[in-house]
Design brief:
EC number: 2.7.13.3
Pfam families: HATPase_c (PF02518), HisKA_3 (PF07730)
Mean pLDDT: 73
Order of helices and strands: HHHHHHHHHEHEEEHEEE
GO molecular function: ATP binding; phosphorelay sensor kinase activity; protein dimerization activity
Structural class: alpha+beta
CATH architecture of the domain at 261-341 and 348-432 and 455-472: 2-Layer Sandwich
Strand order of the largest sheet: 3-5-6-4-2-1-7
Number of strands: 7
Largest sheet: 7 strands, mixed
Low-confidence stretches: 252-258, 334-362, 383-388, 433-472
Number of helices: 11
CATH superfamily of the domain at 261-341 and 348-432 and 455-472: Histidine kinase-like ATPase, C-terminal domain
Shape: elongated
Catalytic activity: ATP + protein L-histidine = ADP + protein N-phospho-L-histidine
InterPro entries: HATPase_C_sf, HATPase_dom, Sensor_HK_TwoCompSys, Sig_transdc_His_kin_sub3_dim/P
Distance between the termini: 75 Å
């Protein structure tokens, strides 16, 4: 039967408890059946009672059929018993009567309203007529008491079934909400990582085509280097896909493609731009690399940069310059999401204020500002109007969970496009007194130890950070 696999899947102690309970119920059925003193009625009483109990444990898809057969058998036995001289003396079958009421409960819980009503009416009638199996000498107060008890029990059974049905509905909605949230998480993961690498492949492939179309034939070494970068981007896309598949197969396995909680991966994000004709300048506040950030903030910073660079490839074909600036600012955030920073004068972060601000946050321990600006002339950017870009939509949700704001819009600085995020720091992570300098430096990645930090900015960036246009 279908109940066997379900039984085997349960723990040992539950299996033992079910076996003992079944033996106890079967013993009660035999005791009640033996009250008639006649073998045929004993067997019939045990069989109908066992059939009613079986309807309570079968799988839901088999329940309507088994329940209908059990109710019909019980009603038939009651009618036949009225014509016999050997009738129960002490009990008409209380175990069977309780099982019939529980059938009503399960029917209300599992079946549609119409089918539940169609099952509850004959089942309640059968349970109410069950006391008529008693000998006529026992009729009177006993049958009246059992009859009213069955009616009251039928009401309780219907209410219990409706309550369990409501609980099942609430649990189903919660599970669906969890699945929806999980699907959105997977969609964001796919967009953040796989789409980023695929876009890099497309951009670098276009660079080869444009170079060939211009009549410039690359040397074998140059062509091999460019194809190697395409191959690397493809390998990274495959690794991202494998990481997502591993998460889908086993939720206990963390995605290998998730960014870390530090800023060590920022330089790797600018690598795919090499050879595409776009110069990338990366500036990181020198106080950030060695600072402990709140959980998730480092990954959010990397996602902002990744999404902005991906949109540059997709929507700013004419962009020749991209600046990535990550800074640490002291002071509380205002209601507009700006930081009141002594010495800042409010000049930083005002670029792109004409754009669309997404989300909002509050904090009194300073903030981390991430700004990505390009000089592309394309205005068909996600976030410029209704905000239908799936990448920025998911990014907005991540920034909002950190209590920050996300701004996307035209940039007056480079006459292009700017994506800016502001992530507030809690007081426990605020810049301490030891951080007295407010000088930003360009992260070069190969600066010698002890070399003084260079000021940041597009005109002072280290040449090692610039991915120059590829020419043969």
């Amino acid at each position: 039967m279908d109940v066997i696999p379900e039984f085997r899947s349960r723990p040992r102690h539950e299996q033992l408890a079910l076996i003992l309970a079944s033996c106890g119920v079967l013993s009660l059925l035999i005791i009640e059946g033996s009250a008639t003193g006649w073998a045929p009625t004993v067997v019939a009483t045990v069989l109908t009672g066992a059939l009613c109990m079986t309807a309570l444990v079968v799988l839901p898809r088999r329940f309507p059929l088994v329940a209908g057969v059990a109710v019909a058998a019980s009603f038939t036995l009651t009618v036949v018993t009225l014509t016999l001289t050997h009738r129960p003396v002490l009990t008409p079958g209380l175990v069977e009567q309780c099982a019939l009421l529980l059938i009503v409960t399960r029917g209300v819980r599992l079946l549609s309203p119409l089918r539940a009503i169609a099952l509850a009416i004959p089942t309640g009638l059968t349970a109410g007529l069950l006391p008529l199996r008693l000998a006529e000498s026992e009729w009177g107060l006993a049958t009246e008491f059992l009859g009213y008890g069955a009616l009251f029990g039928l009401t309780l059974a219907c209410l219990l079934g409706a309550y369990l049905r409501l609980l099942d509905s609430v649990r189903a909605r919660e599970r669906e909400a969890d699945r929806t949230a999980q699907r959105l998480e997977y969609a964001r993961e796919l967009h953040d990582f796989v789409a980023h690498h695929i876009t890099a492949i497309v951009a670098q492939s276009k660079a080869v085509r444009f170079t060939m179309a211009a009549g410039q034939t690359p040397t074998p070494d140059e062509l091999d280097a460019l194809l190697g970068r395409i191959e690397e981007a493809g390998s990274q896309a495959m690794d991202s896909m494998r990481g997502m598949v591993s998460v889908l197969r086993d939720p206990a396995i963390p995605a290998a493609t998730r960014p870390g909680d530090d800023l060590s991966g920022l330089r790797e994000l600018t690598g795919p731009f090499e050879g595409t004709g776009t110069r990338v300048e990366l500036a990181v506040d020198p106080r950030l690399p060695g600072r402990v950030l709140p959980p998730g903030m480092g990954g959010t910073v990397q996602r902002v940069v990744r999404e902005a660079l991906t949109n540059v490839r997709k929507h700013a074909a004419g962009a020749t310059r991209v600046t990535v600036d990550v800074r640490l600012h002291e002071g509380p955030m205002s209601d507009e999401g700006r930081t009141v920073d002594a010495g800042d004068g409010g000049s930083d972060g005002t670029a792109g204020s004409a754009g669309r601000t997404i989300g909002g946050g509050d904090g009194d321990g300073g903030e981390v500002r991430v700004t990505v600006v390009d000089d592309g002339r394309s205005r068909n950017r996600p976030g410029s109007g209704s905000g239908t870009g799936f990448g920025l939509l998911g990014l907005r949700e991540r920034v909002e969970t950190m209590g920050g704001t996300l701004t996307a819009g035209p940039s007056p600085a480079l006459d292009g496009w700017e994506v800016s995020a502001r992530l507030p720091l809690p007081p426990s992570f605020a810049p301490g007194a030891a951080d007295t300098t407010d000088t930003d430096t360009t992260d070069t990645g190969d600066r010698h130890q002890g070399e003084p930090a260079r000021p940041s900015g597009p005109d002072t960036a280290d040449p090692g950070d610039e991915l120059r246009p590829w020419t043969p």
